[in-house]
Every structure is written in C-alpha cells, then in structure tokens.
C-alpha cells in the first residue's frame, strides 16, 4: 500500500469530515447508518494479520488464530496480546505480517491456489515494501520469475530485505518509471500487479494519512497518476495475460472508475472470482472492496482483468554475454546442480536461475545476492544463507534450539564446532551466517534482521 500525500496532525471531529467522506465515495452509496459506521471506523486501528507460507500449517503457529475469510493463507490472532512479529516463527520466515485488507489483491490474483502462478512471468509494478511481491514469489514455487519494480529509491532496501526472506532466487528488482519499463519490456509478462499509489484513505485509521486524502484535488491527482501507470501496465502484458489492480483507498475515482476506463479503451474482460463475491462492488463487475466497518481491516480495493488476444507485440532479445563471477563461490557453497546466471557491481554479486528471462540483466539493479565485498574481501551474503530449494546450498549448516536461536537472532556470537562460514538453522529453517573459529561462531546477521525482544517459546 502506498499513498501520495503526507500525514498531518488533524482531527476527524470536524463537522465537514462526514461530508468529505460521502463526496469521496462518489457513486458508492451507503445508507445513512452505514455511512456513520464507516466514518467512525476510519478513526479505529485494526490489528495486522499473518499470511502463512504455503507449507506452514496454522496449527503449528505458537498462538491461536482464526481464518481471514477472503484469503485462505491469512489468519487473525485470537488474542490482542499476541505480537506475531516477536515470535521465533516469524524470524524463521513462517509468515509475513500485514493488514488483512492487503490480502484482497492476493485473493484477486488467486495466489493461494495451487499452481495458479506456477511457471508464470510476473511484474509487480509498484512493489515496495513487498507484501504482495513476497506472496507472489512463494506462489511461484521455484518456477517462473518475478520482476519487482520500485521507482522510489528509498523504498528498495525494505523490498530487497523482504524478498530475500522468502529464500527464493527467482526475482530481480528494477527501479524504473512504469512507462520506461513498458518501452523496454513490451508484452513480456503473463501477470502484471499494480498496487497503485493512491490518496491512501484506508491509512487514516493508522495515523499515516491526513484528512487531505479526502480532498477532490488529492483524489484527482492520484487518479491521473494511476491512469498513467495502468497505461504502462497494459503494454507490459502478453495477449491473454492477467492484470490485477489494487489500492488502499475508497474513492470510486481511484478504483471502479479506473477499471471502467480500461474496459472502455482496451480489450479486457473482468475476471469473476467466486470466493470474492461477498465483497463484490455494486458499481463495476470484476471489482471487490473491503470496508473497515464490515471486515475488520483498514479497507482496500482490488480488481482482476484478463487481456484479450490482441495486444502489443512482445519484444525479442538476444542472449546475454555471460557475466564472470569476481569471486569463487565454492568456498561457501556446494556445486550447484544447474548453472546460475550472475550480474552485479563492484561490491555485490547476484545470481538468478539459468532459465530466468533473457531480459533480466537489461533492467535489474539488484536481485538475489550471493556475495558482497567489504574493502577488498568478498563474503557470502545474508540472502544466500536464506536460500530454500534453490541450486545454491551452503557447505556447512548447524541446527540450534529455541534458546540458541534467540541468542543468535539478537546478534550475539554462539558456540560453533565448525570452522569457517556456517548457516545457522532453526527447525530446518535458515536464519543466517556465523563464522566459526575455536569453538565460537562470530555472528554475521545484518542489523535489519536482528530480533532483540523475542517472545519466550511456549
């Protein structure tokens, strides 16, 4: 979710606020009582939910949960006292924490369904911080490929961090304006996801947006920007491809009106998703809404469209000249079963599968890091330690119990009988590197990946 304007300290108690909300909704009609309930809900924060990895059972979680109705991999904590981000299971990558509303786009994408995204080439056009991109990577099941595009440089580190936590190597990050990306990669994607920058009205409850989000000027500005992004998204799609559009706002001008515009100007068909019919928009087919006063979340909008058989001609590309790795990886990793493709800079080395699209290196600025250089010394990357089911695997691993895992995740050194670089694992899930010497492992966990206040294991 992203928003266009900057939050300010404003009150929702002004008498004009109710009128602003009604005007912002446009043709979306709520009864007087429901409009009152909706307005009241905009000042109430809803707790985040957890989105499980496909292979993780809800029964294995260290806290009781109940399902999120619109997305089978989403669960709410039953207790208000539970803090999912402070659990070992979260540190080990068993789930992602996000607002329940953000799961609507994933439901429209049907990312929870087996094999729906398998072998697909996907573009997440506005990808940071990665709530949807990480779910897409997991749904690819080590097939296909994801290009996570994020034009705003300051948002890229969080995106890269979250993508690395999936353990996948089937992604790359680009930092291009959508229109420029569409010129380079016309017709190259099976699926394009647009979580569009918007007025962010759903963020009012989280105090991350101001009343100005309801102003006609802000809505018009956001809608104009969305049209430009969607124009690029249509050109990125191949014939028969799928476009999923979502926002974290309620204004019809930024939601249903955008879909109406696409249907009028392009060869798209709305996709009806049976499981989402309880949330269907009353204005436009193929559109779905969540409301804070109905659905226990901040609120969101999503739509899914299928492109017709006439589209832009796909770009063709020559094979890339092989990039030679500046460092020998077999000092840390086993010989891969299949060769990888490398790209990078003077200080970072990235590796993607050999069957990744040939255009990746032409647009990628970052990807699955395997090594980085500090001074003149190359070291294995944290992201490489987290790999799961890829061609790259570490030569040495060590398993730790709950207590030792918590000590490692705090950034402290831990006992290690092996010499050299070793991946620390908790119940088979990789946590990061230590470098063993004389019975102790020096902790190489990045600061951003440390947890200093983990809950006591139950």
TrEMBL record:
GO molecular function, one term: methyltransferase activity
Residues at the catalytic site: 248
Gene Ontology process terms (BP): methylation
InterPro entries attached to this UniProt entry: MeTrfase_RsmB-F_NOP2_cat (IPR049560), MeTrfase_RsmB-F_NOP2_dom (IPR001678), Nol1_Nop2_Fmu_2 (IPR027391), RCMT (IPR023267), SAM-dependent_MTases_sf (IPR029063)
This protein's UniProt keywords: Methyltransferase, RNA-binding, S-adenosyl-L-methionine, Transferase
Record flagged with keyword Methyltransferase: yes
Segments forming domain SAM-dependent MTase RsmB/NOP-type: 25-308
Keyword flag Methyltransferase: yes
Binding site for S-adenosyl-L-methionine: 126-132, 150, 177, 195
Family in the record: Belongs to the class I-like SAM-binding methyltransferase superfamily. RsmB/NOP family.
Protein name: Ribosomal RNA small subunit methyltransferase F
Organism: Novipirellula caenicola
């Amino acid at each position: 979710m992203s928003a266009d304007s900057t939050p300010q300290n404003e009150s929702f108690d002004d008498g004009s606020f109710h009128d602003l909300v009604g005007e912002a909704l446009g043709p979306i009609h709520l009864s007087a009582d429901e409009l009152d309930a909706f307005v009241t809900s905009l000042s109430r924060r809803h707790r985040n939910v957890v989105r499980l990895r496909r292979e993780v059972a809800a029964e294995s979680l260290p806290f009781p949960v109940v399902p999120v109705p619109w997305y089978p991999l989403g669960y709410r904590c039953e207790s208000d006292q539970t803090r999912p981000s402070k659990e070992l299971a979260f540190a080990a990558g068993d789930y992602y924490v996000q607002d329940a509303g953000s799961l609507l786009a994933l439901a429209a994408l049907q990312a929870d369904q087996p094999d729906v995204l398998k072998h697909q080439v996907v573009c997440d056009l506005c990808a940071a911080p990665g709530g949807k991109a990480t779910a897409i990577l997991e749904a690819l099941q080590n097939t296909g490929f994801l290009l996570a595009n994020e034009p705003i440089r300051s948002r890229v580190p969080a995106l890269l961090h979250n993508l690395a936590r999936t353990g996948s190597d089937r992604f790359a990050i680009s930092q291009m304006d959508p229109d420029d990306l569409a010129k380079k990669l016309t017709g190259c994607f099976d699926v394009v996801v647009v979580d569009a920058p918007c007025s962010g009205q759903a963020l009012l409850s989280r105090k991350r947006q101001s009343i100005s989000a309801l102003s006609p000027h802000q809505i018009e500005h956001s809608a104009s920007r969305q049209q430009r992004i969607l124009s690029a998204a249509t050109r990125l799609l191949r014939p028969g491809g799928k476009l999923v559009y979502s926002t974290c706002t309620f204004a019809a001008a930024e939601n249903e009106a955008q879909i109406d515009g696409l249907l009028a100007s392009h060869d798209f068909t709305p996709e009806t998703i049976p499981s989402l019919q309880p949330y269907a928009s009353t204005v436009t087919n193929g559109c779905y809404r969540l409301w804070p006063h109905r659905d226990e979340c901040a609120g969101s909008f999503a739509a899914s469209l299928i492109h017709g058989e006439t589209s832009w001609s796909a770009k063709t590309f020559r094979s890339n000249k092989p990039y030679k790795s500046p460092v020998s990886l077999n000092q840390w990793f086993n010989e891969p079963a299949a060769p990888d493709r490398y790209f990078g800079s003077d200080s970072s080395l990235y590796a993607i599968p050999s069957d990744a699209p040939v255009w990746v290196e032409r647009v990628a600025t970052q990807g699955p890091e395997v090594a980085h250089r500090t001074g003149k010394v190359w070291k294995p990357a944290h992201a490489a330690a987290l790999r799961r089911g890829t061609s790259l695997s570490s030569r040495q691993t060590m398993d730790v119990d709950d207590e030792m895992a918590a000590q490692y995740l705090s950034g402290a050194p831990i006992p290690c009988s092996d010499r050299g670089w070793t991946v620390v694992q908790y119940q088979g899930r990789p946590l990061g590197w230590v470098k063993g010497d004389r019975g102790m492992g020096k902790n190489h966990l990045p600061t951003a990946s440390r947890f200093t206040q983990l809950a006591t294991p139950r």
